[in-house]
Amino acid sequence: MTKVKDPVCGMTVETEKAPAQGTYDGKTVYFCAVACQKKYEAQRARR
Ligand SMILES: [Zn+2]
Predict the structure, then answer these.
(1) If exposure means fewest CB atoms within 10 Å of the residue's CB, which of 7, 19, 23, 31 is most exposed?
(2) CA–centroid distance, residue 23 to ligand 1 (Å)
(3) Distances 16 to 3, 38, 43 between C-alpha atoms, Å
(4) Domain boundaries, the chain
(5) Which pLDDT tens digit goes with each residue over 13-44?
(6) Which residues lie closer than 8 Å to 30 by C-beta, 6 or more apart?
(7) How far apart are CA 47 and CA 31, in angstroms?
(8) Cα separation of 47 and 24, whole Å?
């Protein structure tokens, strides 16, 4: 299995079990929770 880091909270997430994921700039990003994904999107939108 593949483990990646949630860019919002720094938690380790297993890609197969990630509760939330999204594609940004052609890259798939995994999150430990939908709340973290929302936070990530909010940060992106601010720029
Ligand atoms: Zn998180």
Answers:
(1) 23
(2) 16
(3) 9, 20, 25
(4) 3-46
(5) 999 999 999 999 999 999 999 999 999 999 99
(6) 4, 6, 13, 15, 18, 20, 21
(7) 20
(8) 14
Distance 39 CA to ligand 1 centre (A): 9
Report the separation in Å between the CA atom of 25 and the middle of ligand 1, taken as the mean of its atom positions. 20
Ligand 1 centroid distance, CA of 43 (Å): 14
Note the pTM of the prediction, 2 decimals: 0.89
Task: Tell me the C-alpha to C-alpha distance, in Å, between residue 39 and each of 2, 8, 12, 47.
Answer: 23, 7, 17, 13
For residues 39 and 3, what is the distance between their CA atoms, to the nearest angstrom?
20
